[in-house]
Amino acid sequence: MIGNDINFASELLKTGNVVGIPTETVYGLAANALNVEAVLKVFEVKNRPHFDPLIIHVSDVSEMDKYVKYIPDVLRNLAEKCMPGPITLLLEKKEIIPDLVTSGSPFVAIRIPSHTMTRQLLQKCDFPLAAPSANPFGYISPTTAQHVEDQLGDKIPYILDGGPCEVGLESTIVGIENGKVTVFRKGGLPVDTIENILGHPVELKLHSSSQPSAPGMLSLHYAPHKPFYIVHDENEWGKVIKNNEACVLRFDSFLPDFPVEKQRLLSIKADMKEAAKNLFACMRELDKLPGENIYAELLPERGLGLAINDRLRRAAAER
Length: 319
Ligand code: TXA
Ligand code: MG
Fold this sequence. Notes:
This protein folds into 2 domains: 2-204, Alpha-Beta Complex (DHBP synthase), CATH 3.90.870; 228-315, Threonylcarbamoyl-AMP synthase, C-terminal domain (Rossmann fold, 3-Layer(aba) Sandwich), CATH 3.40.50. The strands form 2 sheets. An 11-stranded mixed β-sheet has the order 1-8-2-3-7-4-6-5-9-10-11, sandwiched between helices. Helix 1 crosses helix 6. Helix content is 32%, strand content 19%. The chain is of the alpha/beta class. It starts with a strand and ends with a helix. It is built from 11 helices and 15 strands. It is globular. The site of threonylcarbamoyladenylate has 24 residues, from strand 5 and strand 6.
């Protein structure tokens, strides 16, 4: 059931249920992070392997201190400047956070979502919310309540509807490795914004399919059901035009000589923020259209374009 009753959602969470919640990044599948049985339900609903840990969500920086041992100065600086917002920090957890949440790691991923409704919800709960993206494991993340309803509606009692997600990409995951600030997942907060705040470049450590319990993620992710391909040049687009089974995802201009109803544009204004906001919804729409394959172009490799391209490449990864 979809609705906007924050009190009802908080009652369900207090009694160990799983609830779909809006955030500025993507919709989450939330449970009381301190209740192991509730957290187990999250893994079950999502069909997610227990080795892939969950992010916990809290309402403010002072709440963070309850669940982590300490926040190194560089990360506290980032927290103060970027939270609430689309950033997740990896910090050493206190005992109170169950090992199930972190898949046995001494570090917990923690963030403060900026969505007003979810902040109100968090204030009503005296526990943090463990919430992965509210999609079946491996599929595209949901950016509307209806996306959650379509795939998980029969498995959860309630989805809190906070409208379409403003950012549309998952949070950027940041931690410290070998003494250096390291980005483990590109996301809604661009890496260059983080570097500007810090005043120096960060390390990037993405992809860890060989070691999926390590920070980061599996390489096959964000994948539509249809085979998904990246198109690199005009020659390749020329072949797509002749392909009756093709559906097309482009940045700011339609593919000429190809039916517009089989195409989606991320941003006609070539605006990266708008493109990020539209990305997952467009991928879902193309997945439902007639036609067997999806062909997509990459965006310029800067700012949010880097995180968007990361999602496109993962969608196109070998299955
Ligand atoms: O924007 C977001 O981060 C959304 C919203 C709902 O908050 N959540 C989200 O969760 O994207 P999920 O579970 O789909 O992705 C979380 C990623 C996973 O790749 C996981 O491996 C990594 O974060 N992660 C979680 N806890 C971790 C930990 N303790 N150490 C290393 N990586 C962790
Ligand atoms: Mg996810």
